[in-house]
Amino acid sequence: MTDPIDLVSSKLRRLTPTGDRSWKACCPAHEDKNPSLSVSVGDDGRVLLNCFAGCGVEAVLAALGLELSDLYVTPAEDARRGTLASQAFHKPPRDEPTPRAFVSLDDVRAAYVGSLGEPSASWTYRDPAGEVLGVVFRWETPNGKTIRPAFRVGDGWRQTYPPVRPLYGLERIAGEDRVFVVEGEKAAERLHALGFPAVTSAGGSKAAGRADWSTLTASEVIVIPDADDAGEAYAEAVTDLLAAPSRDVVILRLPGLRPRSGDDVVEWIAEVHDGDEDAASQAFQAIGAEAVWSVRRRQPVLTIAEVLDDPAWRRPPEVIRTGVAWYDDVQPFGGIERGTLTVLAAPPRCFKTALMLNLGWHLAQNGYRVHYLAGEMTRPALVRRIVAMAAEVSPAVVAEPRVGRVAERVAAAVARVHDLGDRLVLGRAPITLGGIAKAAETADIVFVDYLQLIQPDPDHAGSGRVDELDAAMRSLLALTQQGATVVAAAALNRVGRDTVSLGSIRGSSAIEYGATTVYGTNELLAGIDPTADGSPSKRVSVKYACLKQREGEPRPLRFDVALQLGPLPLDPSA
Question: CA-to-CA distance for 266 and 186, rounded, in angstroms?
Fold first, then answer.
C-alpha cells in the first residue's frame, strides 16, 4: 500500500522541502499563488497538514480527493514507513527528536520557569468531565508574547501539543444548545465570565484544523472573529469544520470594534461598553440571538415553538419610512413594512405613476436604495418627472430650458437628483421576474410599474393573461417572504370600475391573495372628470381607498395633486 506522505505529495503542486520531514506546497482548497500549505510527517508516520491561509484539514482533503484515514499509517505499512518518502523527495528521512517526557505537569512547568521565568498567564485544558489534559503558558516579552504548551502525550507530560488538540473550555459547555467560539483562551475566559459558554482551539488563528471539533455538539454555534484578516480566516475555517445539517453555524462580527485592529471581545467589553459587564452581557445576548435567527429565518419550515424563540416576533416589524407624512401616517407601523407587497390599482391618468415616483424619490433622498422598474415610460421621461417634482415645475419646463428663476430651480433640482447616485436605479421594459429578483438583492425597495406588464416566465407564457399574472404574483409572494419589499402599480378592469373594489382589479384573485396591502382609486376618487379638458393650474384632491390591509386598520391615502407640476402629489394639509 502507498505510504501516506507519498499519496499526499503526489497530489500537491509546487511541493518544496523545508526540512528533513517537512515541505510546503500550494493549498488546493483556495486560490494559492504563494505556497501556504505546510506538510510534515509526525512521529507516528501521520501526515500533518496546516494551511496558513486558514483552510481546514477537511477542506484540503476534499480538494485532494482524500479521506482523513489516508493521512495515517496502517500497521502493515509501519515497517516500510519513510522509504517511499525518501525516494519521492530525494532526501533520507531522519527521525525528529521526541520531546522529553516528564512525570508530572508541575515538572513541565518547572522546566519552563527555569528557562523563561514565571509565566504571566496560563490556561488549563480539560476534558468534558473536568480531567486535566494540559496547560498553555504565556510570557510577555519585549518582542511580544511567548506561548508554550504542556500536555499529556503518550506515556508522560511533554512540552508539546497532542497530535489532535482538545478544545479549551470543554468542561463548561456540556448540555449547552448554543456555544460561542472565539480566538484565544483569554477571550474565551472573558466571555465565560459574562455567562456565555465559550470555547477556543489551541495554537492561534492558523491552527483551527488541528483541533478536535467533534467534541462540540451544540446545535447552535456562533463564531466571533477578531477584527483583522487572521480573525476572519479563523472564523471561516471553523465554520467550514463545524458545518452540519443539524447545526446552525454563524459568524458574528462584534459591532464597534476598530477595523483591522485585532481587537476581540475583551476590547469590546472594555472600549465599546466602557467595562460595563451588565450592558455588555445584555448587548451580547441580543446580537447573538439575532445572528442565529438571521440565518434560521431563511429556513422553509419552522415549528411554532421555533418562531416563538425568535426575538423578532415580539418586536414591531422593520419598516421603511418614506418621509412623506400623508403616506407613512396611515400605515399600521408608520412606514412600508419590509418583506411586503403593496399594490396601487387605478385606471390611466389617476396618478399611480406620479405617486410611486414621488415615494421612490423621497426614499432615495432618505438614504434607501430604490429600484424603479418601468414597463411604459422611458428613462428620460422618468427623469424629467422626478426633476419636475424636485423643482416643482412642469415636466415641459424641464424639457425646454428657460432663463430666470425657473431655470435656476431646475438646475438646483438636477443637482439634487444627481446626488442620489446609485440610490435610485431606473429599469426599462421588459420587466421580468428575474429582473425583479435581481433588483431585490441590492435594493431596499423595488417599484414595479406595472404588474400587468411583467413578462411571463417560459413555463406560463401564452397561457393567458390571468394565468400569467397568477404565476407572477406567486413569484412575487415568494420574493417578499424571502425579504424583498415591493410596491407595484396595477390596472383596473375597463368595466365595473365605478365602484372600486378588489374585484375591479385586473387579475384580482391573484393580487388579492398575494398582496399585503392594496390601494385603489378611480376617476371619481381621483378628482378627474374624464369628459372635461381640465385646467393646467387645477389642484385636485385624490383618495386611494384601502381595499386590503393584512395588519392594522385599513386607512385610505389622501393627497392633493397640482396638475401643472408634474403632476406633483402634495400634502393635503399644506
Answer: 8
With cell 485532494, the residue in question is 64
Specify the 3-state DSSP secondary structure of 196.
coil
Are 323 and 362 spatial neighbours (Cβ–Cβ below 8 Å)? yes
With beta carbons less than 8 A apart as the criterion, state whether 565 and 538 touch: no
- Number of Cβ within a 10 Å radius of residue 506: 18
Q: Residue holding cell 419550515?
A: 301
Q: Strand 248-251 and strand 220-223: pairing?
A: parallel
pLDDT tens digit sequence for 352-363 = 999 999 999 999
Per DSSP, the chain holds a count of helices (H) and strands (E) of: 18, 25
Find the length of the chain.
574
* pLDDT tens digits, one per residue of 446-491: 999 989 889 887 776 766 777 888 888 889 999 998 889 999 999 8
pLDDT beneath 70: ranges in the chain = 1-2, 19-20, 33, 74-99, 401-403, 460, 462-463, 496-497, 530-537
Any idea which residue has 393573461 for its cell?
Answer: 465
Angle at 91 between CA 87 and CA 94, to 5 degrees: 110
| Nearest Cα to Cα of residue 137 among 157, 118, 121 | 121
H or E element, residue 410? helix 405-418
By the 10 Å C-beta count (0-12 exposed, 13-18 middle, 19+ buried), 464 is classed as: exposed
DSSP calls for 333-347: TSSEETT-EEEEE--
Q: Decide the pairing of beta strands 445-449 and 370-374.
A: parallel
CB count in 10 Å sphere of residue 26: 18
Distance CA 546, CA 529 (A): 22
Residue 67: CB atoms within 10 Å: 11
Going by DSSP bridges, is the β-strand pair 220-223/178-181 parallel, antiparallel, or unpaired? Answer: parallel
Helix 405-418 vs helix 379-391: crossing angle, to nearest 10: 120
- Asked whether 288 and 252 are in contact (CB, 8 A), the reply is yes
Say if residues 221 and 214 touch (Cβ distance below 8 Å). no
Residues near 183 by Cβ (< 8 Å), separated by ≥ 6?
A: 200, 204, 205, 224, 225, 226, 231, 234, 235, 264
Strands ordered across the beta sheet of 156-158: 121-126, 132-141, 144-153, 156-158
Question: What are the backbone dihedrals phi and psi of residue 475, each rounded to the nearest 5 degrees, phi first?
Answer: -65, -40
Q: Which 3 state secondary structure label does DSSP give 241?
A: helix
